[in-house]
Amino acid sequence: MSASFLTLLKSMKKGKGKIFTRWRHADTYTHKTKEALKAGGFGHLTLHDLRHSFSVAMLEGGGGMKALQKALGHSEFRVTADTYADVTDDGLRAAVNLVKLGPLDLFTDKK
After folding, report:
1. Which end of the chain is more exposed for a tag (fewer CB within 10 A), N or C?
2. Of 37, 43, 69, which Cα lies nearest the Cα of 55?
């Protein structure tokens, strides 16, 4: 976490275990995000889509699963792994290619 973001978080007024205290009900965040997405021309996306996309991008960018667990605020590692550890085709290809098997290419469709 960047020092400036950490400073920002520390400067925020503490709520009842929440960083964001502007709205009382958690669903308000979902509704406000949806409104913003629609206004921006991305009405087909949801807050979950954004969270999931961030998670996959973080993992494929080299972020570890434990770091992702902390970033998402999950108390259980299993929740993070089971829910957000999807692997894209490019991510799978890159992971498999870490294993050196000589000239063998596991992703070639040549017959």
Report:
1. C
2. 69
Tell me how far apart the alpha carbons of residues 16 and 11 are, in angstroms, rounded to a whole number: 15
Domains: count for the chain: 2
Q: State pLDDT tens for residues 56-85.
A: 888 888 888 899 898 888 889 998 888 876
Q: Which two tokens stand for residue 31?
A: 């509704």
Same domain as 84, residue 102: yes
d(CA 45, CA 38): 8
Residues 3-37: pLDDT tens digits? Answer: 776 676 666 666 555 555 565 666 777 888 888 88
- One DSSP character per residue, 21-84 reads -S-SSTHHHHHHHHHHHHHTT-TT--HHHHHHHHHHHHHHTT--HHHHHHHHT-S-HHHHHHHH
Residue-number span of the structural domain to which 8 is assigned: 1-44
Question: Are the beta carbons of 31 and 38 closer than 8 angstroms?
Answer: no
